[in-house]
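[Help] Beginner question about ligand-bound structures

Sorry if this is basic. My supervisor gave me a protein sequence and a SMILES string for fe (ii) ion and asked me to "get the holo structure". I don't really know what that means in practice or what format the answer should be in. Inputs are pasted below exactly as I got them.
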Amino acid sequence: MSLFIPDLTLTPPRQEPLQVASETFVIRALTPSVGGTWTNLNAMLIRAAEPVIVDTGMVTSREQWFADLFSLVAPDEVRWIFITHNDSDHSGNMVEALQRCPNAKLVTSRGEAFRCAASFGISYERMHMVDPGETFDAGDRTLRAVRPPVYDSPYTRGLFDHSTGVYYASDAFCAPNPEAPVDWVEDIDPSAWATTMAQFHLASLCPWIGLVEPAAFQRELSGLEQLGIAALVSAHAPAMRGRSVRQAFANLARLPEVARAKA
Ligand SMILES: [Fe+2]
Ligand SMILES: [Fe+2]
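Answer (accepted):
No worries, everyone starts somewhere. Holo just means with the ligand present. The predicted complex, written as C-alpha cells, is below.
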C-alpha cells in the first residue's frame, strides 16, 4: 500500500462560515490532502435560544476558528458545547472553548465524558451526557444525539436538530473537497464524488465496513434517513442538501460491497 503524505506547507484557501439553515452555520477550515484535494475540518454553530457549538475544530486553526465563531455569537451567550467524539480534529479547541464560554456545558456521550474527565480534568458538573436517541433542550428546540452509521470511535454521536432538519454526522459522509474548493457537494461531479467518498471512508474511517452485512447496514441507513434530513453536515466534506442528501445515503449504502470488491 502506498503511503500518501499531504503537503502541509501549502496554504489552504479560506472558507468563511457557511449558513446551511436558519441560525445554523458551519465553521470551516481546510487542510491539504492527497492529489491536490483538501479535507474539510468542519464544526457547527446552532444559534438556538441557548446557542450550541458542535465540535470545536483543530489546534492548528485555533485563532481563525474562534474569530469565525465569535463573529456569530458572543462567548458568554454560548450554553452548550457538543463534542461528537474526542478525536483531535473535533475537540482540538474544546478546553479553550470551555474556558472562553463560561456559561457553557459540555455535551457528549457517557463514554466520552469519562475520557474528558480523565484526560483533561473537566468536572462532571460541567457536563451533560447523551447517548443514542437521548435529547437535550436548547431553549427553543430539542436536539437529539443520533449515532452515525459509520464512525472511528464507538463513542461518536451525531446531532439532529428537529426544528431545521440539519444532521451533523461527525466523520460520516466524508468526501474530499476538490482542488478548487466548493461550499456544497452538488458542485462536485456526482461520479467523482461517489468514488472519492468511498475511498475516504475505506482509507480513513471505516475499513471494517466490508465485514458488515449489506442488508444490516442498509437498515441502519434507512433508520437515519427516516429522520427527514434536510441538510447534512459532515466534519469532512462540503455541505449536502436536498437531492445530494439522498445521493449521499445511496453512496454510503454501497460501501460494504465496494470494500469486499477491494479485499
Ligand atoms: Fe474521528
Ligand atoms: Fe474527524
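A couple of things worth pointing out: The two ends are 13 Å apart (CA to CA). Helices lie at 62-70, 88-91, 94-100, 110-120, 190-205, 214-225, 243-253, 255-262. Feel free to follow up in the thread.
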